[in-house]
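Late entry, evening session. Most of the bench is empty. Finally got around to the prediction I had been postponing all week. Sequence below, unchanged from the version circulated by S.P.
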Amino acid sequence: MKLRSPLRPRRTRLEIIPLIDIMFFLLASFMMVSLQMQKVRTLKASLPTATLATSTAKPDMVTLTVDRNGQVAVDSKPVSFPDLLTLLAKRHSLNTNLPVYITGTRDATHGSVIYVLDFVKRAGIQRVAIAVKPAPSHS
């Protein structure tokens, strides 16, 4: 004799949403494990430390100052125009990417600053900037 259940027989279904969740979890787990599998090769070194070391060396650059008479000073040292040309040409041959900053005193004329700018360009230097100081704030 066959006994029947009072419930109706249902068809079995394969739920796809939990399967997708499990696949994403496995994918993330494998990615995390594979990232941790890289070999890290390091070398331990005991480096000395400096306590009072200060660097007074400037980066390789030239600062030109033009005064009211049109005279030029290189890093606060007066220099004549022929000496300036040889100095710039020599420094440019050592570093072709040499920056030159031109600044003028408050009473320097525009023409003398432009003359120095043209002089620097004649030496073959391409990186030239006019340096200015901000006006003091009146507060």
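Two things to note before I forget:
The helical segments are 16-36, 81-94, 110-122.
The mean pLDDT is 80.
Will write this up properly tomorrow.
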